[in-house]
TrEMBL record:
Subcellular location(s) per record: Cytoplasm
Any single biological process term in GO: regulation of cell shape
EC code: 6.3.2.9
Organism: Adhaeribacter soli
Keywords, in A-Z order: ATP-binding, Cell cycle, Cell division, Cell shape, Cell wall biogenesis/degradation, Cytoplasm, Ligase, Nucleotide-binding, Peptidoglycan synthesis
Name of protein: UDP-N-acetylmuramoylalanine--D-glutamate ligase
Gene that this polypeptide is encoded by: murD
Residues that, per the record, bind ATP: G108, T109, N110, G111, K112, T113, T114
Described function: Cell wall formation. Catalyzes the addition of glutamate to the nucleotide precursor UDP-N-acetylmuramoyl-L-alanine (UMA).
Length: 448
């Protein structure tokens, strides 16, 4: 059987290695340049590849195509494959065929990385034999070659879900659905929402769907009556049908014997959005048999991924936070909601059609200054002019940090939470976040 793989990133190369290990005739094609580390892996495994082009005759000769999530369904080569009735699947779909482990699959427009990492941390801290993979940046397929884990915690994007057909989640988690990537879904919110809900496909009466009961789009498009599995809706406060909720700083797990409670007093996560994330992760942990004591101990030791409300340090009573991953308005809303102190806000970049209306109440209440870090800041300045007392702009991250340092006083927070993509001044949001952290350490914290 011939398998062609489009894309040579983490998922593509992982799929190639698994296919080779399973005895398939594999060919990898990438229209761009293949990174050295991935090229080395392909060479070591004796897998033929090409870069800088797609040789259609060879790709369309395959019995099955595994597509990188970054390649859109509308791509002419993908459409031609469909026309010839060649199956086009995702790496996750392929890998799922060869694993005996149980899959905990987490998705949502915002919060999925934090929730994935927290879930993994809770399970691993309790001694479960658990692996981490998916959109988090690690290939499931490559891990499945040895398949030594009992559980995998997977972060899944809508693009990955689109290429999944037979795969089944043992526990599916959906945090929220808000507008994003609509260009990939014919600008249809319904198409995007239904893509997210593919998370629940193929689930049976033995499987669980944990979801945010308060998310309007999940409520609109998910039909519990037609669902074969078991549901655990969660909410911030106790309400009808909720099976997990908060009372003060304690989570109540209504689906567990005796309405088990878990304290979040020692959790480092802040904001309502992280309450949702914590409810989802803790619900998974409880389903898999962790005790309240195990969960509380692990919550206290959790360290979130970089660029997600990441505390860099404090100087002269001013706390500096890197939230570079907040590339849309909703992610910034969660950051502004969670921080109670006055804020010097650094924002800007490539606008994604942003509507800042929902941020204006926070601007009036707690933003004392806005520093626009981008090439075109007119929309930010127009939106917040007359609301935020002080607005400045720059195209240099060092200058932005110096401005923030000058404007902030003891008790304030300097927050990088851009609401925009990073590609005007930086390679990606990670590059922007690292540059910000470097500047904070050198200028505000006075060390390098």
């Amino acid at each position: 059987m011939k398998i062609a793989i489009l894309g040579s990133g983490e998922s593509g190369v992982g799929a190639a290695l698994l296919a080779k290990a399973r005895g398939y005739d594999v060919f990898v094609s990438d229209k761009g340049e293949i990174k050295g580390e991935y090229k080395f892996k392909l060479q070591q495994a004796g897998i033929p590849y090409e870069e800088g082009q797609h040789t259609e005759s060879r790709i369309l000769d395959a019995n099955e195509i595994i597509k990188s999530p970054g390649i859109p369904e509308k791509a002419p080569l993908v459409q031609e494959a469909y026309a010839r009735q060649i199956p086009v699947i995702s790496e996750i779909e392929f890998a799922g065929r060869y694993s005996k482990a149980k899959f905990i699959c987490i998705s949502g427009t915002n919060g999925k990385t934090t929730t994935t990492l927290l879930t993994y941390h809770l399970l691993k801290s309790a001694g479960l034999n658990v692996g981490l993979a998916g959109n988090i940046g690690e290939s499931l397929a490559e891990k499945v070659i040895e398949d030594t884990y009992d559980y995998y915690v997977l972060e899944l994007s809508s693009f990955q879900l689109d290429g999944m057909y037979s795969f089944k989640a043992d526990i599916a988690v959906l945090l929220n659905i808000t507008p994003d990537h609509l260009d990939r879904y014919n600008y249809s919110m319904e198409n995007y929402a239904l893509s997210k809900l593919r998370l629940t496909q193929n689930q049976t009466s033995e499987d669980y769907f944990i979801y945010n009961q308060e998310d309007p789009l999940i409520f609109q498009y998910f039909k519990p009556a037609a669902f074969a599995g078991q549901t655990i809706p969660f909410a911030l406060e106790k309400r009808e049908h909720a099976k997990a909720w908060f009372e003060g700083n304690k989570m109540v797990l209504g689906f567990a014997p005796g309405n088990a409670t878990v304290s979040t007093e020692n959790s480092p996560l802040i904001g309502k959005h992280n309450q949702y994330n914590s409810l989802a992760a803790v619900s998974v942990a409880k389903l898999l048999g962790l005790t309240e004591a195990q969960i509380e101990a692990a919550l206290a030791t959790f360290e979130n991924a970089e660029h997600r409300l990441q505390k860099i340090g404090e100087a002269d009573g001013v706390l500096y936070i890197n939230d570079s991953k907040a590339t849309n308005v909703e992610a910034v809303w969660f950051a502004l909601e969670g921080i109670k102190q006055p804020i010097v806000w650094i924002a800007g970049g490539v606008d994604k059609g942003n509507d800042y209306e929902t941020l204006k109440p926070f601007a009036k209440e707690k933003i004392k200054a806005l520093i626009c870090l981008g090439k075109d800041n007119e929309k930010l300045k127009t939106s917040f002019g007359g609301i935020v007392p002080e607005i400045r702009e720059t195209q240099r991250v060092e200058e932005a940090v110096q401005m923030a340092k000058d404007l902030a006083t003891a008790g304030d927070v300097v927050l990088l939470s851009p609401a925009c993509a990073s590609f005007d001044l930086f390679n990606n949001y990670e590059h922007r976040g690292h540059r910000f952290m470097e500047a904070v350490r050198e200028i505000a914290l006075k060390y390098s």
